[in-house]
Design a protein that fits this description.
Radius of gyration: 21 Å
Structural class: alpha+beta
Number of helices: 8
Number of strands: 5
Helix content: 55-70%
Largest sheet: 3 strands, mixed
Length: 154
């Protein structure tokens, strides 16, 4: 139960987050996902934004609901899920409760392309966020695009 200015909200969290929050009485920042259905509105919370992104990716897979996605994030970290998907390791994914080998294969085939695209975009943004070159390099590479191509080749 999450208390926000006197209003209590029921938030579903992973087992890892529950153990991290046990005994804490201070303020906590949760990244939340609200699922709206015909019969219920359910709130899912995560301590890390990374876990929220992986949770949303898992919800996009046919046959994986929010409870199964929470179970996966309780059994495996977000990075473990990413590495298992990109490596095609269905056995590692099937270790999560409620996920069998067929569902793991389905998850790998549907998430792999989206996940690799997202990771590629993040890598490209990080690569071009570098500090602009000093004056010596600017004289050597007069055009900015030449410097960008040089950085991309590294």
């Amino acid at each position: 139960l999450l208390d926000v200015n006197g209003v209590g909200y029921g938030v579903f969290i992973t087992g890892r987050d529950a153990s991290a929050l046990s005994g804490r009485r201070d303020r906590v920042k949760l990244f939340t996902y609200l699922q709206v259905r015909e019969d219920a509105m359910q709130l899912y919370g995560f301590l890390k934004k990374d876990d929220l992104h992986v949770f949303q990716l898992l919800l996009g897979v046919n046959g994986i609901g929010p409870k199964a996605a929470l179970g996966m994030l309780s059994a495996l970290s977000a990075n473990d899920i990413r590495f298992a998907v990109l490596a095609g390791d269905a056995k590692a994914i099937a270790r999560a409760p409620g996920i069998g080998p067929k569902t793991a294969q389905k998850m790998i085939s549907s998430i792999c392309r989206r996940l690799s695209t997202v990771l590629w975009q993040k890598a490209q943004k990080a690569r071009y966020r570098q500090v602009p070159p000093d004056r010596y390099r600017m004289k050597r590479y007069r055009h900015w695009w030449r410097w960008a191509i040089l950085v991309a080749r590294r």
